[in-house]
Structures are given as C-alpha cells and as structure tokens.
Amino acid sequence: MSVLETFSLQEKVALVTGGAGLYGRQIVEALAEAGAKTFIASRGVEALERVAEDLNDRGYDVTAMHLDLASDSSIEKLHADIITECGACDILVNNAVTRSAHDGWAHDLEAYDISLHVNASALFKITYLFAQNMKAKNSGSIINISSMMGNVGIEMDNYVGTDMMPDPSPIYFFEKGGMINFTRWAASVLGPNNVRVNCLSPGGYKAGQPAAFVEKYSARTQLGRMANDTDLKGAIVFLASDASAYLTGTNIPVDGGYTAK
Q1: 3-state SS of the chain: helix, strand, coil percent to 5?
Q2: CA 65 to CA 44: how far, in whole Å?
Q3: 161 has a pLDDT exceeding 90
Q4: What is the Cα–Cα distance from 123 to 19, expressed in whole angstroms?
Q5: Measuring CA to CA, how many Å separate 77 from each of 28, 67, 82, 208, 241?
Q6: 3-class state of residue 140 by DSSP
Q7: CA-based Rg of the chain, rounded to a whole angstrom?
Q8: What is the pLDDT of residue 260?
Q9: Angle value at C-alpha 117, between 65 and 173, nearest 5 degrees
Q10: Residue 238, exposed/middle/buried by CB under 10 A (0-12, 13-18, 19+)?
Q11: Band of residue 261 on the pLDDT scale cut at 50, 70, 90
Q12: Which pTM value belongs to this model?
C-alpha cells in the first residue's frame, strides 16, 4: 500500500457529533471526501440535514441523525442505530459542545453542571459505547475536538479596542483542558485493543470579528492569521486514517502556532 492510500477512508464508518458549526462542517466534509460513510448527529437536525444534503449532492455519503447529549437514552439509541445499520463504527469524532455558563464566573452550581453534563459526562459515555465495538474489531480511531484554549489561559489583550471584551468564564478552559487529558487516559485504556485516541486543538476561526481583534489575534500566531474553513481537514483525515496508525494519546494544536509562542 502506498503512503497516499493509507489516508483513504473508503469502507470506513464515521460519526461526528455536531457537524454544522464552524469547525464541524469541515470535519464532516473531510471525512466524506476521504471516502467514509459519515453520520452527523446533534439536537439541531435541520441544520445537519442541510449539510448532509449539500455533501450528498456532491456524491458523498452523509446522514443526519438526532442526538441529545444530555440524555442517556438518546446517546444509547444513536449508538444502537448506527451499529445495527453498519455493524461497526470505525471513527468517532467528539466535536459537539454546549455553551452553558460560558459568560462570566458568577454562576450557581446548576449552570456549571449543565455544561459539565454534556461536555464531560456525555463525552465519557458516548466514547465508552463506541469504544466497545472498536475493541471487538481490534481497530478504531477516536478524535476529540478540544481547543487551543485548553492549553493556555485567556489573552485579554486580544480584545482591547473592540466591543468583544469578554466576561471570562472558567468552564470552557476547564473542559477543553480536561478533554486533552481524557484523551491520554482513554488512549492508555484502549491501546491494548488497537483503538487509538487523539485530540485536535483548533485555534481561532476568522468569522467576522472586529478588525482590531483579528489583527491582534493574528499577530499572536506564528503564521500571522486566523483559521479558515479548510485548515482542520488534513489533520482530521490523518488521525482518522491508517496514516496515523502508530499515533495515539496525542494532542495536536491546529492553531497557526498560537500556543507555540
């Protein structure tokens, strides 16, 4: 097999939680373009169906499904439906995120618990379920989508001179940092069964922010720009495919060098 052939995802089945957001869309596109039969799942099924329709019109195989990560039964149903239809799921991309308690530090316990329920507890559950099938096949790739904010603290200077000055909350930084170490933990547990677990930590996506923010953020990176709508695709296919067969437990910052400074 040539090195280029190792990047192929033909005859593979993939699930992406979320899939209609800024990074989710390109994750789904990358997997489908590489040949995977790709399922995308979230509560916002209508948005996912638009993504699936567009990609299916281009000749790919993408199916939108409902998933409420706050519900045990919803996670279990999605898992059962995919395994019943396909017999296996080769690639799991944990991309979906909820945004409870992301504004400010002064929240009660319930607000934090809502966020942790989806961004931590549900992450553990859905990964466990699909990992059992991967273990039975002695093969699989799990990719967690963290954030460069899981590696660093907040850079308040980026917001000076804009109307974006944040009221910082610890929850996103806590959850994304935790996801990186969960990746290491799961890789340790699943490695003996040839199931690989890796993490991608994207940087900021250029999406209409004020010019002052874009300028400050871009200057903070080594490549001098924010991310675009294709920057994550190559890394996703690499981690999903046999091209990364000897890579597990890693966190790859796809951030233009932001966290390397």
Answers
A1: 50, 15, 35
A2: 9
A3: no
A4: 16
A5: 21, 9, 9, 37, 26
A6: strand
A7: 18
A8: 95
A9: 105
A10: buried
A11: confident
A12: 0.97
pLDDT in tens, 210-234: 999 999 999 999 999 999 999 999 9
Q: Are 147 and 201 in contact (CB under 8 A)?
A: yes
Helices 171-190 and 122-137: crossing angle, nearest 10°?
Answer: 20
**Token pair 């990358």 is at which residue?**
30
Rounded to whole angstroms, the Cα distance separating 104 from 35 reads 42
For residue 107, the number of C-alpha atoms closer than 13 Å in the C-beta half-sphere is: 19
Please give the structure tokens belonging to residue 170. 């610890």
pLDDT of res. 142: 99
User: Over the stretch 64-108, which tens digit does the pLDDT of each residue have?
Assistant: 999 999 999 999 999 999 999 999 999 999 999 998 998 999 999
Q: What pLDDT is stored for residue 230 in this prediction?
A: 97
Residue type, 148: M
Residue located via tokens 């149903």: 77
Place of tokens 């961004």: 119
C-alpha atoms less than 13 angstroms from C-alpha of 91 in its C-beta half-sphere: 34
Inter-residue contact 140 to 195 (CB < 8 Å): yes
